[in-house]
Design brief:
The protein is 42% helix and 13% strand. The protein is built from 11 helices and 10 strands. Helix 2 packs across helix 3. The strands form 2 sheets. Strands 1, 2, 4, 5, 7, 8, 9 and 10 form an 8-stranded mixed β-sheet that branches. It has a two-stranded parallel sheet with strand order 3-6. A hairpin with a 4-residue loop joins strand 4 and strand 5. The two termini are 21 Å apart. It is α/β, with parallel strands linked by helices. It is globular, with a radius of gyration of 20 Å. The longest helix has 26 residues, at 299-324.
Length: 327
């Protein structure tokens, strides 16, 4: 546990980052274990997802999910037939997960003040969501442009908050935080790891059906067949579309990889700029920058990295407090 006195009114900021956001679960594990008091939590995108679960008292559910999420569950959450309009995925399936993680709470019934950050495409400005149903706010905050359809709310067309504010330190201060701990999961790439080009690496899918001569995994085929029985004309079209979307080819990239990596490039530049203008009091950067946006099956690796980084940061924070104590 940290030595007394604690810094006044500690606010926690959890940044965007897709699958790298699992590091937030580890960081929160460490904060809980050390009984660090928080006055508020703010999150963008993945940070909003895990921050909302914590504020709703459902952090245990997130921890459990990190041990059970494999490529099959990923397909259940992400793969859906949605004729592309404003996004490849409608988000209907993942909405059920968001409801589970937030337990159907409204912002007013959470255990801790919480806010999610999204981007209003019409005004090109950040929107702080802190009222209404929490799962709907998180759905807006995670809507990567081109991947998930935007969320229409109060006349706003909302997409991922990482487009304008990937690490919303300013929002935590506006909520009353006097000491801000911010967890950035994008900028620290471990030298011990190289990026994987396959969003579903073979090592993480031991029970997958063998793939030969370009044949799709049996599970994908069965799921697509189940969906397309209701709409027979879409059967072949849906098979071909998903094969292209999830293509793992070292010579090229899938549409998901192109969209998410492009978005991440922009997001990282914005993060660097905002850290200069709005630095937190304690910046925690788990070494998960090598994990790709959609590699959700690497959850435990990211959780462990987040826990280790926060443990080190809290030790440094303790030393700082001791040095500042009057003698």
């Amino acid at each position: 546990m940290l030595t007394d006195p604690y810094p006044p009114k500690i606010g926690l900021v959890l940044g965007s980052g897709g699958a790298r956001g699992w590091a937030h679960v580890g960081a929160l594990n460490c904060l809980i274990r050390n009984r660090v008091p928080l006055v508020c939590v703010v999150g963008t995108s993945a940070g909003a997802l895990f921050g909302s679960a914590f504020a709703a008292g459902r952090h245990d559910v997130a921890n459990t999910l990190s041990t059970t999420l494999d490529w099959r569950r990923m397909l259940e959450l992400f793969v859906e037939v949605n004729l592309p309009r404003s996004g490849l995925l409608s988000g209907r399936r993942i909405q059920r997960l968001l409801n589970e993680l937030t337990d159907g709470n409204t912002f007013g019934t959470l255990n801790l003040p919480f806010a999610a950050v999204a981007t209003n495409l019409r005004t090109e400005r950040e929107v702080v969501l802190d009222s209404g149903l929490v799962d709907q706010a998180v759905r807006a905050s995670i809507a990567i442009p081109g991947v998930f359809t935007p969320v229409v709310r109060n006349g706003c067309l909302l997409v991922d908050g990482g487009l304008v504010n990937p690490l919303p330190v300013n929002v935590a201060r506006a909520m009353g935080a006097e000491f801000v701990i911010a967890v950035d999961v994008n900028l620290n790439v471990s030298a011990m790891n190289r990026p994987s080009h396959d969003p579903l690496p073979a090592a993480s899918r031991p029970q997958a059906a063998p793939v030969a001569n370009g044949e799709r995994p049996a599970a994908w085929r069965q799921m697509l067949d189940d969906w397309s029985t209701r709409l027979p004309p879409l059967r072949e079209a849906s098979h071909a579309a998903f094969a292209r979307w999830f293509k793992a080819d070292p010579e090229s990239a899938s549409i998901f990889e192109v969209l998410t990596q492009t978005f991440r490039l922009v997001e990282n530049q914005i993060t660097r700029a905002r850290l200069v203008l709005e630095p937190p009091d304690l910046l925690v950067q788990p070494a998960v920058g090598h994990i790709q946006t959609l590699e959700f099956q690497r959850a435990r690796e990211a959780v462990d990295a987040g826990e280790a980084a926060m443990e080190l940061a809290l030790a440094q924070m303790t030393q700082r407090i001791k040095k500042e104590e009057p003698t």
